[in-house]
């Protein structure tokens, strides 16, 4: 409530339906904001069923200087749908110069590797491989 000097009445500013007071923990808000901004930067924005990237995967993308085009994100989403339809739980998705481990159930990329990390690497705990 704001008290306007000289009027003696308290008025409530119109905030367009936004609550005036929230009990949001600042750290929770920062974490949520960070997660959403990473989701946007990774191209994982969309409705339910959209592929997401874990914090670990986002760190690997940054460390390894990798990026994904919109076309690649579409290919990844299609690969996720195929893995779901076959009952996969954890998949290795191999693209041109990248490989991703994806939790199909959670629709989340767990980690990402560039072609330099693929040599002599052993992939465990996966039940399917999709090459796109």
Q: What this model shows, in words?
A:
The structure is a single chain. The strands form two sheets. Strands 3-6-5-4-7 form a five-stranded mixed sheet. Strands 1-2 form a two-stranded antiparallel ribbon. Helices cover about 35% and strands about 20% of the residues. The chain is globular, with a radius of gyration of 22 Å. It has a domain of about 90 residues. It has four helices and seven strands.
Total helical elements: 4
N to C succession of SSEs:
EEHEHHEEEHE
Total strands: the figure is: 7
Q: Largest sheet, described in full?
A: 5 strands, mixed
List unreliable stretches of 5+ residues: 1-15
Kindly, what is the distance between the CA atoms of the first and last residues, rounded to a whole number of angstroms?
57 Å
Inertia-based shape: globular
What topology, given as strand order, has the largest sheet?
3-6-5-4-7
Rg (CA only): 22 Å
Structural class: alpha/beta
Return the average pLDDT rounded to an integer. 79
Helix content: 25-40%
State which percent range the strand residues make up: 15-25%
Offer a concise description of the structure.
The chain is of the alpha/beta class and 132 residues long. The chain is built from four helices and seven strands; from the N terminus they run ββαβααβββαβ.
Features:
132 residues, alpha/beta, five-stranded mixed beta sheet, 7 strands, disordered N terminus
């Amino acid at each position: 409530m704001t008290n306007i000097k000289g009027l003696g009445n308290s008025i409530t500013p119109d905030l367009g339906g936004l609550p005036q007071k929230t009990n949001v923990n600042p750290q929770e808000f920062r974490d949520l904001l960070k997660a959403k901004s990473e989701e946007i930067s990774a191209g994982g924005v969309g409705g339910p069923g959209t592929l997401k990237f874990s914090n670990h995967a986002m760190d690997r993308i940054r460390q390894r200087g990798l990026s994904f085009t919109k076309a690649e994100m579409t290919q990844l989403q299609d690969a996720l749908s195929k893995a779901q339809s076959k009952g996969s739980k954890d998949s290795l998705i191999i693209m041109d110069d990248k490989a991703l481990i994806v939790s199909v159930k959670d629709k989340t990329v767990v980690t990402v590797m560039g072609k330099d990390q693929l040599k002599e690497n052993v992939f465990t705990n996966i039940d399917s491989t999709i090459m796109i």
